[in-house]
Amino acid sequence: MQAQVIKSYYQGMQMKTIGHHTCESKGGQNHVLKESPFFSQHMPDQNKLPYLGAGYYFWDYNIDAAHAWGDTHYKGNYFIVEGDLECKEELVFDLVGNRKHIEYLLKVSETFAKHKFKRSNWELGKFIEVLKKLEKDGENKGVFPFKVIKAIDNSWNIKRCKQKSIKFVRDKKGYIFLDPKIIICFIDKENIRFYNKTVIKPRHKKKI
Asked: What is the pLDDT of residue 161?
């Protein structure tokens, strides 16, 4: 189950994008600009269940998703911090466009299923937390050597999917969705390079 062979391919490469970090407006604009990004805890007993486990969350260049999150989770009392976001590609567990990483996750889950930890009984965030704990265990070193996780949230509503899609060929079923909601989660703040930051204030709530 070792993941090192997957990781080594990306040695020296960089992940670069525009990151959108949605956070509470508590503390004011200057505080948010200085201290962001903020940590999201994984605490099931308090119903704090971030999608990809505990970490620092960004939308991958998606201001609409950032505003929608602020409207829904902070009741409009939020700021969005926008900036250049970078990290080493070798640190990224890419569930968006890396088939080997997706395959690896499935294989690990199958191994767990043999020990009565079936995939139908866990959420992705919970499972990632288990993998992180295993990585800290000396006997399981290499099972999850990643520091960043990328995934697509497919919960956009059906209406939006129709508006933002295009068929490959007329009269065929195949199509591509042109507005994916990509989440980036950094496990540790030390691996984040987030600079040229600006604060974006809430806008009127928009249905998406």
From this structure: 65
Domain with 156, as residue range(s), is 4-200
Q: For CA atoms 23, 24, 29, 30, give the dihedral sign.
A: negative
Sign of torsion, CA 114 115 120 124?
Answer: negative
Give a yes or no: residue 45 inside a domain. yes
- Within a domain: residue 75? yes
Domain assignment of residue 208, yes or no: no
146 domain residue, yes or no: yes
* 173-189: burial string, b at 16+ Cβ within 10 Å, e else: eeeeeeeebbbbbbbee
Q: What are the tens digits of pLDDT across the range 123-140?
A: 899 899 989 998 888 778
Domain count, the chain: 1
Within 8 A by CB and 6+ apart from 34, the residues are none
Beta strands in 25-160 (DSSP E): 39-40, 55-60, 78-88, 92-94, 148-153
What are the CA-CA distances from residue 163 to residues 101, 113, 179, 208 (Å)?
30, 39, 9, 10
